[in-house]
Design a protein that fits this description.
Layout lengths: L4 E4 L3 H11 L3 E4 L5 H7 L8 E4 L9 E3 L3 E5 L4 H6 L1 H6 L1 H7 L5 H4 L4 H6 L52 H8 L3 E6 L2 E6 L4 E2 L2 E2 L6 E8 L6 E7 L10 E10 L2 E10 L6 E2 L1 H7 L6 H11 L11 H15 L2
Parallel strand pairs: 1-3, 2-3
Antiparallel strand pairs: 4-5, 5-10, 6-7, 6-10, 8-9, 11-12, 12-13, 13-14
Helix pairs in contact: 5-8, 9-10, 10-11
Length: 324
């Protein structure tokens, strides 16, 4: 690992000031479960000159509520988030998603903000510099995405144009289903946006001097049914092949509201809006759930080796909607 300057930030304002000072040449460190591996493998085209430790900012941790909203500090440890009574009461699908992240050792260190902002897991992007030199993909200043004509078993089947890497965050899928927003603090002040708008085809929307400070979740209706399902090759610790989060409200068997979100199929969590519209006003049955699943994947454009994701995704949508 190359040398770098390590700085403890005592406040959000200090962290923002330091980020602005280094002008993109610094990285934030919270749990460090992904960042330290990235640095050791030297996968980044530009090595950071400084690491800014934000674990020293106490006000960024914890789970709280008011009458309408659940607030989660960005530095809340995943294990603590899973164990929080407010999350278990109001957001069980988020708890389900958190409990699928990596292994207990990781969840005891990793933060919710870090999980949302983690770097892509694409094997071309992550190819170690020490084994023949890094691969110059689009995210590293290259002109093409090697996955398009290469090994693309785990890449995007929806919404990709240039880069076909998928968002690896399980919590982003759950939070999108919960209609959550994130607050970003930076030199120009703070801004709030939906979780699904945090991502771009080549990373995320954070400016070089910004960091995530909090997540806000509107309290779901008490009768809302929540589910999160994740399909992996290695059940205990793996990243998703496909994941699905759903939140549906039923009145006398009729669906009055639905949110269906697909994970690991695109660079961002994907709302299945046509499927949601279709379900609204209908009885939730095997037949309607199957039709919703078809609509959810109607716009998919798989690559040569990942069309199998389509059937997995359809099955997970159906299972999530029916609570199976």
């Amino acid at each position: 690992m190359k040398t770098f300057t390590h700085i403890n930030a005592d406040s959000v304002a200090e962290a923002v000031k330091l980020l602005a000072q280094y002008q993109g040449r610094a990285k934030l460190n919270a749990g460090g479960t992904d960042l330290l591996g990235v640095l050791k493998d030297r996968i980044l085209p530009d090595y950071p000159e400084a690491l800014i430790n934000i674990k020293t900012i106490p006000e960024l941790s914890g789970v709280a509520e008011d009458e309408k909203t659940i607030t989660i500090g960005a530095l809340t440890i995943l294990a603590d988030l899973s164990a929080a009574p407010l999350i278990e009461k109001y957001c069980p699908l988020l708890k389900e998603a958190v409990d699928t992240v990596a292994a207990p050792q990781i969840r005891n260190v990793a933060t919710i903000g870090g999980n949302l902002c983690q770097d892509t897991r694409c094997w071309y992007y992550r190819y170690p510099d020490e084994i023949g030199g890094m691969i110059q993909c689009l995210r590293k200043g290259g002109k093409t995405c090697p996955a398009v004509v290469g090994e693309n078993q785990y890449h995007a089947i929806m919404g990709a144009k240039k880069c076909f890497a998928v968002s690896p965050s399980d919590t982003a899928v759950a939070l999108t289903a919960l209609d959550a927003t994130v607050t970003l603090a930076g030199g120009s002040g703070t801004r709030t946006l939906p979780v699904e708008e945090l991502y771009t085809p080549l990373g995320n929307v954070l400016n070089p001097d910004e960091l995530v400070t909090a997540i806000y979740i509107p309290k779901p209706a008490p009768a809302a049914k929540q589910n999160f399902i994740k399909f992996t090759l290695r059940k205990p610790i793996d990243f998703a092949i496909v994941s699905v989060a759903s939140l549906t409200t039923l009145e006398q068997g009729i669906c009055t509201a639905a949110r269906i979100v697909l994970g690991a199929v695109a660079y961002t969590p994907v709302r299945a809006r046509e499927a949601e519209k279709f379900l609204t006003g209908k009885e939730l049955t095997e037949e309607t759930a199957s039709e919703a699943a078809e609509l959810a994947l109607a716009g998919a454009k798989p690559l040569a080796k990942n069309a199998y994701k389509l059937e997995i995704a359809k099955t997970l949508v159906k299972r999530a909607l029916l609570g199976q």
